[in-house]
Specification:
single chain; alpha+beta; Rossmann fold; eight-stranded antiparallel β-sheet; six-stranded antiparallel β-sheet; 20 strands
């Protein structure tokens, strides 16, 4: 059936990004796993040039450049660790290197880079373009951050999308409100959900793309942070990040709309709309404010 329905594999179309190979198998029955691994080994393309806001980064460049594309908390529950995953885009990385964190401008030493394979991890003594390393993170690194040997670079095409479903998060135990805030902030740094702290009552609004994510978040917050939480329906329709070239106009908008604005985990301002008409009405009233569905 697969051969009759699917087109023949075309390596050029695959390399152009217009075709995806599909493997059939069952991990639980150990059927097709070897074929999948062989396919990744034989078909995966070589590292490609990566786009930044100023230029293209070629993989054979001598100096190291990398970007953070994922944050994962509590990979080791015993140590409550947080790992930032970095993709090496150019150069030869070595353990102990000092790299510039472009967002803060500070130099950081990568003491304990790690390589992962399933549940196993080992110290990464070196890494090259295309490799992915894990860096122990204490909240300094975020998705989209750049690491270089000195050049200021900002990798593009790493967006954050506005959520489609918004609910309020409340701890089952009111005394654990601070713990809930810490848990939600860490999960937001992972990219698992969008989290907004409202200006009116300092409550938490969580935004996701699909409702199943609330069940996942609820279970993770309970098991990983020991903070049972409940999610409650809201009257909110969507969220939009707001910005303006004139800081005074932006401040005036936020001051006049404290009941319908919030801050995300990066402390960037967000407008919370009750419905499509509300969103359009506010946009019409404040033409100088930009309302962004993608951050």
């Amino acid at each position: 059936m697969a051969k009759g329905v699917c087109a023949d594999f075309d390596e050029k179309a695959y390399m152009d990004g217009t075709m995806t190979p599909v493997f059939f198998g069952s991990a639980i029955n150990n059927f097709g796993v070897r074929e999948l691994l062989d396919g990744v080994k034989n078909l995966a393309p070589s590292p490609r040039a990566q786009k930044t806001e100023t230029r293209m980064i070629e993989p054979l460049e001598p100096k190291v450049s990398a970007f953070i594309f994922k944050i994962q908390a509590n990979m080791d529950p015993k140590h409550r660790d947080r790992i930032a995953f970095a993709r090496i885009c150019s150069g030869k990385f070595k353990k102990g290197m000092k790299l510039k964190h472009s967002r803060s401008g500070k130099m950081i030493t990568i003491h304990s880079p790690q390589l992962f394979l399933a549940q196993e991890r080992e110290m990464a003594e070196e890494a090259f373009a295309g490799d992915i390393i894990g860096i122990p993170n204490h909240g300094n690194l975020r998705i989209g951050d750049s690491l270089t040997e000195g050049e200021d670079l900002k990798f593009s095409d790493i967006p954050s999308f506005a959520p489609e479903i918004l609910q309020r998060a409340r701890p089952e135990d009111p005394m654990k409100a601070k713990h809930l805030g810490e848990a939600l902030t860490q999960l937001a740094e992972e990219g698992a959900a969008r989290v907004f702290k409202t200006n009116l009552d300092s409550g938490w609004v969580v935004g996701v793309v699909g409702p199943l994510q609330f069940d996942v978040l609820k279970d993770r917050i309970r098991t990983e942070y020991n903070c049972p939480v409940r999610f409650e329906e809201t009257e909110l329709y969507t969220a939009r990040w707001v910005s303006c070239d004139d800081d005074r106009k932006l401040k005036g908008f936020l001051d006049n709309n404290r009941t319908i604005t919030a801050l995300d985990h990066d402390q960037d301002p967000v407008f919370l709309a009750r419905n499509a008409w509300h969103l359009q009405d506010v946009q019409d009233k404040y033409p100088d404010i930009e309302f962004m569905a993608t951050k």
